[in-house]
Amino acid sequence: MNRFCIKDEIKNYVFILLGSITLSLGIVWFFIPNGIITGGTAGLALLLHYISSYSVGFWMVAVNLPLLLLGIKYLGKSFAIRTVITIILISTFVDVSFEILHIKALVEDVILASIFGGVLIGIGLAFVIKGNSSAGGSTIIARVISSKSEIKPGQIIFIIDFFIILSSLFIFDETAKVLWSIISIYITAIAVDKILTGNLNKKVVHLVTNEVEQMSSLIKEHIGPYGTVINGTGLYNENKKMILIVIEVTKLQLLRDLVKKNDPEAFLIISEANEMLGRGH
Q: Which of 5, 73, 207, 215 sits in a 20 to 30 Å window from 158, CA-based?
C-alpha cells in the first residue's frame, strides 16, 4: 500500500469515526428517549429494543452481521471491513452512551427530537458514506438487489424504511410519533444530500442559438470564461449549434436579458446543477 493509499484510508476512517459518533448521539439524545424510529437497521434495532430487553447496540450487530455475510462478496473486501468497523463503532457508542454513561435526552419533545435527531443522523450517515463505508442493513440489501436487477438502490432503501415505519404502528399507541418518524427520515435524507452534494447555487443552461459567435463573446464578457459549443443536427437535417454553460443563479437574469436583446429566436433550457466535480468542486 503506497503513501497515497494510506493517506486516503486514514481519511476514510476519520470520516467513519466522526459519522459513527454523530449518528450515535442522534439516537441517544433524541430518538431513544422520545420513542422515535428512524430508517434502516438503526430503526429496526430501535423497534426490537422497544419490544425486548436487549440493547439497541446488540440488535444493530445481530441484524447487520447476517446481512453483511450475505452481501460481502458484492461489496469488496475493503468496503466490507469498513462497514463491519462502522457497525461495531455505532453499536458500541450507542450502548456505552445510553446503558453505561446514561447520557440524558437533550430534549424531551417529539417534534424537536424528530427534527434535530434527523439532522444528526443525516450528518452521521453522510460522514460514513464520505468514508467509503455504510451503516449496514438496508444499504447492503440495496446493493445486492440492485446488482442483480434494474431496481435503483434508493427505491429499495425507501421500501425497507417504509415497512420499518409501518411496523412501528403495531408497537406505538401514538400515531403522531410514527408520523414524526416519517418526517425525521425525510429530514435525514435532506441532510445526507446537502452534505454529499453541497448547497449548489448554480444552474445548467443549454442555449440553442443561430448567433453562436456573438453570444459566446457576450457570455465570456458578462457571465464567465467557461462554456462549451456543441454541434448538432436538427430534425430537418439542418446544422444546429448549442452553448452549454454552468451559471450562478444571480447571473441568470442577466443571461436572459442578453439572449432576449441579441437573439430573440434563441432557445434556453435551464436545469438544476445537482452535483459538480472538478475545477474547484
A: 73
